[in-house]
Amino acid sequence: MGLSTHVLDTMHGTPAAGMGVALYTTGGKDGSATLVKHLVLNADGRNPDGLLYDTQSLQKGSYRLVFDVAAYFRARGVELPEPPFLDQVSLDFGIADVSQHYHVPLLVSPWSYSTYRGS
Questions:
Q1: pLDDT for position 1
Q2: What are the structural domains, with CATH classification, of the chain?
Q3: Which of 36, 56, 63, 114 has a CA positioned 20 to 30 A from the CA of residue 25?
Q4: 39-50 residue pLDDT tens
Q5: What are the backbone dihedrals phi and psi of residue 87, each rounded to the nearest 5 degrees, phi first?
Q6: Which CB contacts under 8 angstroms, 24+ apart, belong to 83-90?
Q7: Which pairs count as long-range contacts for 103-107, CB under 8 Å and 24+ apart, including other chains?
Q8: Rg (CA), the chain
């Protein structure tokens, strides 16, 4: 159980190794976000440390994942316009039942992205 993410680069047909990702808690009365951790995805497009939150640490609430899409594609040698169409992709989501696993995958290219609640 817990919280995890996985990113696939749909332009190249590979995991998004090397992409930076930030995890935040959100939902304060002022709409603020608090940085929990910043990580760089491994060769499989996943957090090198495994889960973002394990079952014991995950709490009911609102979260945000921010993916550094433009920086990743530039590092791969893709020429992007300035400003890029997608710079950072920010996904806000809620955790309602901490006994379940929440997997937040991202499929991304320089021009599009898709996400869903995975297993």
A1: 82
A2: 2-115 (2.60.40.180)
A3: 114
A4: 999 999 999 999
A5: -95, -70
A6: 84/110, 85/110, 85/111, 86/110, 86/111, 86/112, 86/113, 89/113, 90/64, 90/65, 90/66
A7: 103/3, 103/4, 103/5, 103/6, 104/3, 104/4, 104/5, 104/65, 105/5, 105/6, 105/7, 105/8, 106/5, 106/6, 106/7, 106/8, 106/16, 106/65, 106/67, 107/7, 107/8, 107/10
A8: 14
Rounded mean pLDDT, 18-44: 93
What pLDDT score does 119 carry? 85
Per-residue pLDDT at 31 exceeds 80:
no
